[in-house]
Design a protein that fits this description.
It contains five helices and no strands. The chain has helices spanning 3-44, 47-51, 62-85, 90-112, 119-139. Helix 1 packs antiparallel against helix 3. It starts with a helix and ends in a 7-residue tail after the last helix.
């Protein structure tokens, strides 16, 4: 094997890992953006205004709507901040896992209300958050700052 073939063979996992990491960052950013938008809506808009775009808001206590909104904001922060600062980057895995769990519960909630139109959105969030959690755990982990 020539030295150029050895170099290519050794660099292949690094290139693949880099592409995976870029894909994970893109998904993390998209999820964080979408969760931020949803979180701001549920956290800060008057309940009557939020109810115009979110069907279930009038059917649950306002405190629950606010709690969900704040949780979405923290999840968005958890997807980005620990990984970007490399301070406790495993928290990004926990945030993504938490989002996946919440999306499973959201799907059950919407099924019980016959809101089947919401399921594809929940399934997309579930799939993307599982991709981030597993990807950051196994494929492209972020090393904690020493």
């Amino acid at each position: 094997m020539s030295s150029s073939q050895t170099l290519v063979a050794q660099d292949a996992p690094t290139i693949s890992n880099r592409k995976t990491s870029i894909a994970l960052w893109i998904v993390q950013a998209i999820l964080a953006l979408l969760l931020s938008i949803a979180g701001v809506t549920k956290s800060f808009q008057p309940i009557k205004v939020a109810a115009q775009t979110i069907n279930w808001v009038n059917d649950v206590p306002p405190a629950l709507v606010r709690f969900i909104g704040v949780s979405e904001l923290f999840a968005a922060i958890g997807l980005i901040l620990p990984a970007a600062t490399r301070i406790q980057p495993r928290l990004t895995i926990f945030a993504a896992t938490g989002i996946a769990l919440i999306m499973m519960f959201a799907m059950i909630f919407h099924i019980t209300r016959n809101e089947f139109f919401a399921l594809p959105i929940n399934a997309a969030f579930l799939t993307l958050s599982v991709f981030v959690a597993y990807g950051r755990l196994k494929w492209a982990p972020i090393v904690s700052r020493k």
